[in-house]
Backbone:
């Protein structure tokens, strides 16, 4: 029994700790960029299409199981990291030039970006803009704007 438990404890301690709000998510859900990938080059404005599988999209304020709405993080550390990382996981994603909210249930946007390198990450938020208890987060990608 000890032989099995020790590796499980070691594996658990090695995994990243994800907190989130109180709203449950489908553990198999994924959010992703449907039309762009890491390393792509664009001319501004850039159209971004949000992909979601395993859950549905619903406007902010909608209390329905296995739903949420999109947030686009631009040029900032990955969700949960940085100065306000723990707060945004527990209390909600702020709204500013680095945190775009799509509380109307939108599934795409067109954004103006200055020339240069930019990071993008998608996060699904619950009815109150808080990541789910298992956050549904895309990989962070880097794009180049000419």
Residues:
């Amino acid at each position: 029994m000890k032989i099995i438990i020790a590796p499980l404890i070691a594996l658990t301690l090695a995994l990243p700790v994800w907190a989130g709000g109180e709203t449950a998510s489908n553990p198999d859900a994924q959010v992703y960029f449907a039309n762009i990938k890491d390393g792509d080059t664009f001319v501004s404005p850039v159209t971004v299409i949000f992909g979601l599988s395993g859950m549905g999209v619903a406007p902010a304020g909608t209390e329905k199981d296995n739903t949420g709405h999109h947030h686009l993080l631009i040029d900032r550390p990955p969700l949960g990291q940085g100065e306000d990382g723990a707060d945004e996981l527990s209390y909600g994603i702020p709204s500013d030039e680095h945190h775009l909210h799509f509380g109307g249930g939108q599934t795409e946007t067109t954004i103006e970006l200055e020339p240069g390198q930019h990071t993008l990450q998608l996060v699904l938020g619950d009815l109150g803009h808080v990541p789910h208890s298992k956050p549904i987060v895309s990989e962070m990608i880097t794009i180049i704007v000419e």
